[in-house]
């Protein structure tokens, strides 16, 4: 009994599908439409902390290294934002159904840690992305996320739910997501639709985890050090990677996407780059994370970009 919907503490019967949520609490349709009315921004890499699929990160508002935290390319995935209203501390995750319970617990814990010493406030939850996809992946994920937050001992206010039917538009008899990604201004907490052409360092390495069966949601930012942190992790060699790389773009799109009709244009190119990385790095514990050390990136003061550092 810890999810708060429209200001009311819920009993055991929380809405587990988006249609029921919008029917029982129409205010969420209104707040979603407000977000949908904001023009999408193309965000550059300076001051950006990009969170990829199956990753999370938490940021304090006074962090000089990060002005925008965000994620995109969410079709059947959902981007989750947890914010402490008193401090402005923010955690953001890009969830696909793997490791949800652990990710929810980590996000709330990180935000509470970053809120220490600030005025008291409430934990606010915002869910963005996911559309009415033909297989119902996003609906299952919404149910999964709602149950995870409802099990958490903290009271958590759902303040935004731009998901499911409200984030769906029909084009040529095909359902499409309206919002694929969002950015969050870490100073103000403002959320806006966004795309990120530059997704930060080592994207192929980061994407390789979920292509090879890594089920945890990786925390990619060390807020004490102010550094992007990747790994360490390992994965098993991907059987048939040479065969995958020899296939046509259409074959890869149809077989390696949950939503092939609505993927962004760069999807296949990114998949190929990731498969090539896996082919060349079959054991990242040896070739990438030497001595079991993470990869660290510090914000370069001159360029504003993430720069690899030995730490």
UniProtKB/TrEMBL annotation:
UniProt-recorded name of the protein? Protein N-terminal asparagine amidohydrolase
Residues spanning the membrane = none
InterPro entries this protein is in?
A: NTAN1
GO function term, MF aspect, one = protein-N-terminal asparagine amidohydrolase activity
Recorded GO cellular component terms are: nucleus
Which Gene Ontology BP terms does the record give? Answer: ubiquitin-dependent protein catabolic process
